[in-house]
């Protein structure tokens, strides 16, 4: 199934990079993703994999991050929080990055790669909260933790210098946190940067299933199951679970980076249109043939364009 990806300044949808099948390195990364993924796992096998498992742990911190940046580790509400600071200079920006993993998987190496690219490209301080995962926990526990992290950052950083960023489920969290903070009367962050965000836990747009043959990582039924664990007893349609259904007024400027070979792409288009209709600022940056969270393959030209664009938007010189 093809969905048009026009460059249209009136709707702020732009193609990030050339049209076509993508670079050789992106195609190579997509091939590796295909080899490592098992998107067609049955719901029964999915339950066996996650129910009753040992407590999941994040991937070990990359040695390069400790070598090149000052790293602090703290606890908030009983959960780990990493903060990375520039050793020399710094841009004054502070990015809070929430990792993806369908709300059930811990932080992976690709997430540390994204964190490192954000640090190098933007000169920012980056905070990485290791939020509690489903099925052992639900969104309400994660929200308490993430609000505590945000309040802690606000004690030393102006909200006008804070960016909420995340990929996939973490992109959902970056956005739903902004909604939650707005409704709680907390100061809004300056920007939201969302990588392949999961915006509707129910994946109600039929085009998502139509895109499954192009997506080597995700399937609608599996995501719905994991979304239901995250929701607990709540309805999947709740706006703080599925922000596609939220009141999208009075949000900070939003940039969404999305590939076309991703079942979440249709919802990214719909979300972008709804933000604009609500009077907000949204830009959708589309990468042709980009797989889910393609920017996690940080060695590709497509990923480098993403981080370069973020740096430019934050006013950081290359």
Describe the structure.
With 318 residues, the chain is α/β, with parallel strands linked by helices. It has one domain: Alpha/Beta hydrolase fold, catalytic domain (Rossmann fold, 3-Layer(aba) Sandwich). Helix content is 36%, strand content 18%. The protein has helices at 24-36, 43-50, 63-68, 109-122, 139-154, 169-184, 206-210, 220-231, 265-277, 301-313; strands at residues 13-15, 69-76, 79-86, 94-98, 125-129, 162-167, 191-195, 254-261, 282-291. A nine-stranded mixed β-sheet has the order 1-9-8-7-6-4-5-3-2, with helices on both faces. Strand 8, helix 9 and strand 9 (282-291) form a beta-alpha-beta unit. The protein is globular and about 50 Å long. Mean pLDDT is 95; it is low at 4-10.
Brief digest:
With 318 residues, the chain is an alpha/beta fold.
Notable features of this structure?
318 residues; alpha/beta; nine-stranded mixed β-sheet; 10 helices; 18% strand
């Amino acid at each position: 199934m093809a969905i048009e990806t026009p460059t249209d300044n009136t709707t702020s949808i732009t193609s990030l990079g050339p049209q076509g099948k993508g670079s050789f390195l992106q195609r190579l990364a997509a091939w590796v993703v295909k080899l490592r993924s098992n998107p067609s796992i049955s719901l029964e096998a999915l339950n066996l994999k996650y129910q009753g498992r040992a407590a999941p742990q994040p991937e070990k911190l990359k040695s390069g991050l400790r070598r090149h940046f000052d790293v602090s580790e703290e606890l908030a509400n009983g959960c780990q929080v990493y903060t990375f600071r520039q050793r020399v200079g710094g841009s004054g920006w502070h990015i809070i990055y929430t990792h993806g993993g369908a709300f059930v998987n811990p932080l992976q190496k690709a997430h540390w790669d994204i964190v490192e690219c954000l640090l190098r490209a933007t000169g920012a301080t980056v905070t990485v909260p290791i939020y509690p995962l489903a099925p052992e926990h639900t969104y309400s526990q994660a929200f308490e933790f993430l609000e505590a992290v945000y309040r802690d950052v606000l004690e030393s950083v102006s909200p006008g210098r804070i960016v909420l960023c995340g990929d996939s489920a973490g992109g959902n969290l970056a956005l739903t946190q902004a909604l939650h903070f707005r409704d709680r009367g907390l100061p809004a962050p300056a920007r939201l940067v969302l990588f392949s965000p999961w915006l509707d836990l129910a994946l109600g747009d039929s085009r998502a299933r139509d895109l499954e043959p192009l997506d080597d990582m995700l399937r609608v039924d599996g995501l719905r199951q994991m979304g239901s664990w995250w929701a607990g007893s709540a309805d999947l349609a709740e706006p703080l679970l599925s922000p596609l259904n939220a009141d999208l007024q009075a949000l900070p400027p939003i940039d969404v980076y999305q590939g076309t070979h991703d079942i979440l792409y249709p919802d990214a288009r719909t979300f972008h249109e709804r933000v604009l209709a609500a009077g907000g600022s949204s830009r959708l940056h589309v990468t042709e043939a980009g797989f889910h969270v393609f920017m996690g393959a940080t060695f590709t030209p497509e990923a480098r364009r993403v981080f370069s664009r973020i740096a430019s938007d934050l006013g950081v010189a290359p």
